[in-house]
Amino acid sequence: MGIDHYQDPVCRDCSFLPICRGGCPKRRYENKYEGKQNDCCTPFKGRIEDYLELIVKKQD
Ligand code: SF4
């Protein structure tokens, strides 16, 4: 359908692939065929240190 994250040059260059699996396929479909601007990326992208700090704090 043209929404395969393995064919997406941005995803292919992203260190979160294949962990995030390209995000929600419906949202990717909407971006490609309905002109939407959904953020399909994992919420961890760009915030991994914040999440790790939260996990560590919860264990204290
Ligand atoms: S985090 Fe975003 S850019 Fe990276 S693989 Fe997932 S969907 Fe693609």
Q: What is the N-to-C order of secondary-structure elements (H for helix, E for strand)?
A: HHH
Alpha-carbon distance between the two ends: 46 Å
Q: Residue-averaged pLDDT, rounded? A: 93
How much of the sequence lies in strands comes to under 5%
Major sheet characteristics:
none
Shape: elongated
Tell how many strands the DSSP assignment holds: 0
What can you see in these coordinates?
This protein has 60 residues and is an all-alpha fold. The chain has one domain. Helix content is 43%, strand content 0%. It contains three helices and no strands. It is elongated and about 45 Å long. Iron/sulfur cluster (SF4) binds next to α1. Iron/sulfur cluster (SF4) binds at residues 5, 10-11, 14, 16-17, 20, 22-23, 40-42, 45.
Core attributes:
43% helix, 3 helices, elongated, 60 residues, mainly alpha, binds iron/sulfur cluster
